[in-house]
Design a protein that fits this description.
alpha+beta; 217 residues; three-stranded antiparallel beta sheet; 29% helix
Length: 217
């Protein structure tokens, strides 16, 4: 479900028009987020870190209107009511494809369905790109390295309005765990202010897992 934005009366009209003709209108921001409380809580309940982070990342994205804007094939701007995570999934033959998950605000309900979808895609294999599905956030886990920069590949005919989130290998510093997270946004739809809202919202959720985790698994 989505609503169409009236571009002519939209507060972002001038910014949207300005970036329309850019060859690549996206921009990236990398930050380290503190995951100590989140990590300890999900491990105490034996939850998958990967699927749990998809949940909390989606929770943050759904809290920010600008991260739910998408541009359709006709150049119209949609504001989705809910956006859902899609992610790269590594297969046992060292190739990868895409898995798609249904965001639900209830952590337990999300995890139960996500585990089934994850295992089904690992068995199915194949690329399984669903580029027509705009109600997505694209996640890319890279758990082997803790990086400070990242660049996505782009196709000229591709849709650049879907936010992309990459996350790497966590590390420890001064008794805390940190995770590198990268966010890529379309500059016509969102700016540094909204990226700041995303990272502060994400950090709040990571610091307070008791707000969404069940008391016991």
């Amino acid at each position: 479900m989505y609503d169409l934005i009236d571009i002519e009366t939209w507060k972002r009209k001038d910014l949207f028009r300005f970036f329309q003709d850019y060859d690549n209108p996206t921009w990236d921001l990398m930050c380290d987020v503190r995951i100590t409380s989140f990590y300890n809580a999900i491990k105490a309940q034996d939850h998958s870190f990967f699927l749990s982070f998809l949940y909390v990342g989606s929770l943050a994205c759904n809290a920010i209107d600008e991260l739910k804007y998408r541009i359709d094939k006709e150049g119209k701007v949609r504001q989705y009511h809910t956006v859902h995570p899609g992610s790269t999934i590594l297969y046992d033959n060292e190739t990868y494809g895409y898995g798609y998950f249904d965001y639900q605000e209830d952590f337990g309900a999300f995890m139960r369905k996500a585990k089934v979808d994850f295992e089904n895609q690992k068995q199915k294999k194949g690329l399984d790109a669903k580029e027509e599905d705009l109600a997505r956030i694209y996640f890319s886990p890279i758990p082997w390295v803790s990086f400070t920069g990242f660049r996505h590949p782009y196709r000229k005919s591709g849709n650049t309005s879907i936010p992309m989130i990459v996350f790497g290998k966590f590390y420890e510093r001064d008794g805390e765990r940190y995770l590198p997270v990268g966010l890529t946004l379309h500059h016509g739809l969102a700016d540094g202010f909204h990226a700041g809202k995303f990272f502060s919202t994400l950090q709040n959720f990571l610091d307070q897992p008791e707000d969404y985790l069940p008391a016991s698994k």
